[in-house]
């Protein structure tokens, strides 16, 4: 393994330090907790604060979405591990401008536990906290058990919508309801081609045999629904799109936002090859793409593969997706 790090135990702190230095015009580090990144304007009086958090190794998620029009404060965890309750609490404190805090995060056991603990501590300090849990990963549980599904790249679109709604001056209840509508309208699926390696381990943390691909793989290498022979880009795109369409109530005439993300080691040009087929597949069904995002938006260290996220839009969601946002991981001009 040839990688760029110093002491593997320091890689998260050094990543956050470099990130904050590189984007000092948009973010800063909390003086109270070095595992909390704050957006410019965080804690604006009278505006609902938006908080998220998650394990490191998914950059630009989660820190990359701190910025005006998106997330106000981000709690940072170790590689592939939830942030602590203390980090979530400090993020809530920093984001609160007196109108309450919406915590928008993914459905993982550690995050669920630590967000709930932090919310209880915040309530004792007079901070009102409401949550929305992302569960957009289609292959992680059947449709009738959707509450058990993991949150993956659909979280990004939920953050985009939630942050834009908060920027309108909406109440905490309105931000929560709109973020919930956003994730309810979102489906994601991933395909892994090669595993990722945690620096401290020095070896892949799961196996995908040469010539194979794992359909429905999770962002931490959670098993998918099928290990299949590696297929062409068009065939992989068709598979992913069909999985999403089979789970979604999309009809001809609908509008969608599409986010296609590499998992860390997939060349950008290959993402565009996959996107081309997905776009044509949606067009063939009479579904229009209102806004696409293609790139490395939610990675898994050096995993090779791709995730597809599709959000069905109504007029409100389309306007919020189009609203201005300036974050290191996503900029929308508006």
Automatic annotation (TrEMBL):
Domain of life, per lineage: Bacteria
Keyword annotations from UniProtKB, A to Z: Kinase, Plasmid, Transferase
Gene3D superfamilies: Dihydroxyacetone kinase, domain 1 (3.40.50.10440), Dihydroxyacetone kinase, domain 2 (3.30.1180.20)
UniProt-listed InterPro entries: DhaK_dom (IPR004006), Dihydroxyacetone_Kinase (IPR050861)
Signal peptide: none
GO MF term (any one): kinase activity
SUPFAM superfamilies: DAK1/DegV-like
DhaK domain segment(s): 7-330
Name of the protein in its database record: Dihydroxyacetone kinase
């Amino acid at each position: 393994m040839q990688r760029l790090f110093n002491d593997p135990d320091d890689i998260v702190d050094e990543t956050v330090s470099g990130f904050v230095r590189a984007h000092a015009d948009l973010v800063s580090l909390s003086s109270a907790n070095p595992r909390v990144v704050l957006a410019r304007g965080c804690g604006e009086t009278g505006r609902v604060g938006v908080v998220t958090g998650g394990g490191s190794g998914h950059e630009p998620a989660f820190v990359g979405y701190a910025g005006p029009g998106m997330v106000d404060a981000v709690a940072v965890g170790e590689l592939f591990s939830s942030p602590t309750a203390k980090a979530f609490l400090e993020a809530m404190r920093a984001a609160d401008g007196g109108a309450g805090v919406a915590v928008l995060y993914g459905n993982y056991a550690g995050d669920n536990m630590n967000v709930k603990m932090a919310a209880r501590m915040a309530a004792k300090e007079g901070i009102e906290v409401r949550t929305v849990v992302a569960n957009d990963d289609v292959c992680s549980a059947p449709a009738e058990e959707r509450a058990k599904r993991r949150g993956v790249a659909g979280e990004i679109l939920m953050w985009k919508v939630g942050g834009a709604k908060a920027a309108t001056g909406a109440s905490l209840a309105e931000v929560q309801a709109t973020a919930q509508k956003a994730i309810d309208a979102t489906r994601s699926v991933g395909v892994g081609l090669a595993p990722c390696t945690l620096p401290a381990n020095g070896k892949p943390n799961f196996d995908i045999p040469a010539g194979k691909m794992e359909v429905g793989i999770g962002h931490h290498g959670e098993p998918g629904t099928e290990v299949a022979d590696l297929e062409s880009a068009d065939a992989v795109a068709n598979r992913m799109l069909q999985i999403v369409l089979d789970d979604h109530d999309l009809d001809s005439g609908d509008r969608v936002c599409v986010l296609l993300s590499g998992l860390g080691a997939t060349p950008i040009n290959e993402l565009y090859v996959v996107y081309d087929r997905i776009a044509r597949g949606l067009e063939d069904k009479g579904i229009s793409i209102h806004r696409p995002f293609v790139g490395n938006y939610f990675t898994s260290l050096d995993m090779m593969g791709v995730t597809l996220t599709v959000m069905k839009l109504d007029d409100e969601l389309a306007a919020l997706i189009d609203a201005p946002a300036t974050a290191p991981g996503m900029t929308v001009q508006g």
